[in-house]
Amino acid sequence: MPAISMTVNGEKVCGDVEGRTLLVDFIRGNLGKTGTHVGCDTSQCGACVVHVDGKAIKSCTALAVACDGATVNTVEGLATNGKLHPMQEAFREHHGLQCGFCTPGMIMAGIDIVKRKGKKLKEETIREELEGNICRCTGYHNIVKAIQAGAAKM
Amino acid sequence: MYEFEYHRPKKLADAVKLIKSKKEGKLMAGGMTLIPTMKQRLASPTDVIDLSGLGNSGVSVTKTKVTIKAGTTHAEVASSSDLKKAVPALAALAGMIGDPHVRHKGTIGGSVANADPAADYPSALLALNAKVVTDSRTIEADKFFKSLFETALRTNEIIKQIEFEIPARSAYSKFPNPASRYAMVGVFVADFGKKGVRVGVTGAKGSAYREKAMEKALTADFSADAIAKVKIKADDMNEDIHASAEYRAHLVGVMAKRAIAAAK
Ligand SMILES: Cc1cc2nc3c(=O)[nH]c(=O)nc-3n(C[C@H](O)[C@H](O)[C@H](O)COP(=O)(O)OP(=O)(O)OC[C@H]3O[C@@H](n4cnc5c(N)ncnc54)[C@H](O)[C@@H]3O)c2cc1C
Ligand code: FES
Ligand code: FES
């Protein structure tokens, strides 16, 4: 079994994985960070979105072994000293969730949008950029509002 | 997913050697098609040779020609400022593939090698008269896409890059499947001036193809009116729960007209 190491939320971690171990399974199973969710089997829902070397990817569609040496950020790494990240705070404030299953992926996707498109986001841009994140509860309206507000405060 | 052995070579020559030495090896680029396929146990390679360690990515543009290395992600193609100037239609096409997360990983080489009948790039490669350069030869797009998920690639052949001449103007128009965002029908129109107009269509048939009657009409007169009389036959069009063959045939005409109107 290959031994891998990576930096997850600023912390050096290592572990033994099989070639077929998915990044999301390494994060949830080996590291016990269950904030990253698995919502589908078809790479479509985005509940599993994390940042690898600064880019949002679907961790259910990446091999853990291929991320050897990478820097990974998950939703658990966003808050600092007990204070929510502005994007998390915006989801709370704007009621951007109901069951919360899609939320970690939405928040990680939201932050990625800001990185690529800046803090001033049009509603239309957000809706387009959320193509790969599915929510079964909210109807998206408040998610879009939350990302717009969170972006402005980042 | 079945277990396999993972390899990440740093040089193309090593990748070629590895894939040839394995019983049922499979190349992996972005993994955006391969990993879902392996998860469903539709593919069960003994070995996975990850090409992401080759560093084979980047878009380069000269006065007349564009070269895109196989490992260039859709996000990189979409955001290449040189390409946006030279062939904005192709950068726009890359930005329409899947979603941002898929675009961060998926590559042009992987998409072309996979030859999904509803993938976007094949239509562009045909319209742009592109060449697919592999580790051992150069294949013209016209001879590359054979049929459903079938290309001219030999077993274990590795795509190195895609090359094409810059057209005078071009555009891609896509009617996305509302659920998957793959092309229900996508039409890429490229105007090469004296060398004529080429029209690549994806999503409509088992494999991307050129709509030659439209090419002839557009070479004579590059306008939406010029193709109004071109009849698109529904005979060999795809038919599924999303669209009938007749509807797809209709979409080919509509998407082509939109592309002509948008060409720049
Ligand atoms: C949710 C989702 C939505 C998508 N939407 C779209 C869409 O709208 N339009 C679209 O066109 N595509 C879409 N795709 C597919 C996406 O574009 C993939 O990135 C692409 O089809 C495969 O590229 P890859 O780099 O991920 O290749 P991989 O999945 O790694 O490989 C695919 C195949 O190509 C082979 N291969 C890879 N690289 C090479 C090479 N250099 N030489 C020879 N063979 C090679 C592999 O062996 C494998 O058989 C979508 C995918 C997902 C998951
Ligand atoms: S769990 Fe990764 S996309 Fe659904
Ligand atoms: S809040 Fe339930 S899936 Fe989005």
Provide a descriptive summary of the structure in words:
- The complex is a heterodimer of chains A (154) and B (264).
- Chain A has 154 residues and is an alpha+beta fold.
- Chain A has 2 domains: 3-75, Ubiquitin-like (UB roll), CATH 3.10.20; 86-153, Orthogonal Bundle (DNA polymerase, domain 1), CATH 1.10.150.
- Chain A is built from 5 helices and 5 strands, in the order E-E-H-E-E-E-H-H-H-H.
- Chain A is globular.
- The mean pLDDT of chain A is 97.
- Chain B is of the alpha+beta class and 264 residues long.
- Chain B has 3 domains: 5-52, Uridine Diphospho-n-acetylenolpyruvylglucosamine Reductase, domain 2 (2-Layer Sandwich), CATH 3.30.43; 54-165, Uridine Diphospho-n-acetylenolpyruvylglucosamine Reductase, domain 3 (2-Layer Sandwich), CATH 3.30.465.10; 169-262, CO dehydrogenase flavoprotein, C-terminal domain (Enolase-like, domain 1).
- Chain B has helices at residues 12-21, 34-39, 74-79, 81-86, 88-95, 100-105, 108-114, 121-127, 141-144, 212-220, 245-262; strands at 5-7, 25-28, 47-50, 59-61, 65-69, 131-134, 138-140, 145-147, 150-151, 159-165, 169-176, 183-191, 197-202, 209-210.
- In chain B, strands 4-5-10-6-7 form a 5-stranded antiparallel β-sheet.
- In chain B, a hairpin with a 2-residue loop joins strand 8 (145-147) and strand 9 (150-151).
- The chains are: A alpha+beta (154), B alpha+beta (264).
- Bound molecules: flavin-adenine dinucleotide (FAD) and FE2/S2 (inorganic) cluster (2 copies).
- Residues 26-34, 36, 51, 70, 97-98, 102, 105-107, 109-111, 113-114, 116, 119-121, 158-159, 181-182 of chain B line the site of flavin-adenine dinucleotide.
- Averaged pLDDT of chain B: 97
Total strand segments of chain A? 5
User: Overall pLDDT of chain A, averaged?
Assistant: 97
Number of helices of chain A: 5
Identify the CATH class of the largest domain in chain A: Alpha Beta
Order of helices and strands of chain B: EHEHEEEHHHHHHEEHEEEEEEEHH
**Share of residues in helices of chain A:** 25-40%
What's the level 1 CATH class of the largest domain in chain B? Alpha Beta
The N- to C-terminal Cα distance of chain B equals: 45 Å
Please state how the strands of the largest beta sheet of chain A are arranged side by side: 2-1-5-3-4
Largest beta-sheet details of chain A: 5 strands, mixed
Query: Which structural class do the helices and strands of chain A define?
Result: alpha+beta
Bound molecules: flavin-adenine dinucleotide, FE2/S2 (inorganic) cluster
Ranges of chain B with pLDDT <50 over ≥5 residues?
A: none
Written as H for each helix and E for each strand, in order along the chain, the element string of chain A is: EEHEEEHHHH
